[in-house]
Specification:
301 residues, alpha/beta, TIM Barrel, eight-stranded parallel sheet, 12 helices, 46% helix, Aldolase_TIM, EC 4.2.1.41, N-acetylneuraminate lyase activity, Dihydrodipicolinate synthase family protein, DapA-like
């Protein structure tokens, strides 16, 4: 399956049982809801998927399960976030074996590589696999910027096809388009900037709150792309307090609480993360429940 790299790609949460095992039935329930809402692909093992705490065996289980579950309706994309280039290459090969149809690739983890090293890392992984690749550009959280000059070098690799744009600078959408045209598809990776970046020409949205609110997320994207801006904006304004939960270091706990409230997940997280409690939980729950009490009726599109 070729990937078009457009539309809605949830950065999917990893569901756990109370005994800290993978909760595949709950994972599948949410995945079914996402597909029914009209998402265009799913990304496993990202930051929101608690990538740093899940094992290679668990990644394999999740990937094979998702591939079987979606039955070719959408592409399953596996995130790679590794410190060693050799390990990233191994995981790219494993992803293909497990049935993934694409990769999301972060710069090297834990070492702040310079521009030459960052480019070499991406080139080595890209050259090792035929899978389509989306580069994750998030200098705010990961301290390494994938510059336009790096993308210039990566343009020589046909399977490097897209960017998850998380620089927090909406102007970067225009910079990418001005320099590369449509060579790289651009997917907004910051929930609170999604509609703005789509209006500027982004091709899609790698979402967080979509895990709990797939229908609203798809509606904002499709209405915006159709030029029905007022209708999209009405949903987006309602959505914003929820989307802001994606910007916090505890985004995993916050989004999992939202999933639990809508019946698409649980609050179970893996240590060192701990479930929310006390005043903090009450505050986040208030945001979620206020939104649920005022949930908009979506237009036909």
């Amino acid at each position: 399956m070729a990937i078009e790299w457009k539309g809605i790609f949830p950065a999917f949460t990893t569901k756990f049982t109370s005994s800290d095992e993978l909760d595949l039935p709950l994972f599948g329930k949410n995945l079914d809801a996402q597909v029914a809402a009209g998402i265009d692909g799913v990304i496993l093992g990202g930051s929101l998927g608690e990538a740093s705490t899940i094992s290679i065996a668990e990644k394999e289980t999740l990937t094979r399960y998702a591939v079987e579950k979606v039955q070719g309706k959408i592409p399953v994309v596996l995130n790679i976030a590794e410190g060693a280039t050799s390990e990233a290459v191994k995981q790219a090969a494993a992803a293909a074996k497990w049935g993934a149809k694409g990769l999301m690739l972060l710069p090297p983890m834990r070492y702040k590589s310079d521009e030459k090293e960052t480019a070499a890392f991406f080139k080595t992984v890209a050259a090792s696999t035929d899978l389509p690749i989306m580069i994750y550009n998030n200098p705010v959280d990961y301290k390494i910027e994938v510059t336009l000059d790096i993308f210039e070098q990566l343009s020589a690799y046909p399977n490097v096809q897209a960017v998850k744009e998380s620089t927090r600078d909406v102007s970067n959408v225009t910079r990418m388009i001005n320099r590369f045209g449509d060579r790289f598809k651009i997917l907004c990776g910051v929930d609170t900037l999604a509609m703005e970046e789509i209006m500027l020409g982004a091709n899609g949205w790698v979402g967080g709150l979509v895990c709990a609110f797939p229908e609203e997320t798809v509606a904002v994207y499709r209405l915006t792309k159709a030029g029905r801006i007022e209708e999209a904006l009405a949903i987006y304004r309602w959505f914003l307090p929820l989307l802001e939960l994606d910007l916090h270091p505890k985004l995993v706990q916050y989004i999992k609480l939202a999933e639990a409230q809508v019946g698409l997940g649980s609050e179970a997280v893996r240590a060192p993360r701990l479930p929310l409690e006390g005043k903090e939980r009450e505050q986040i729950l208030k945001v979620i429940n206020t939104a649920l009490a005022n949930r908009p009726k979506l237009p036909v599109y």
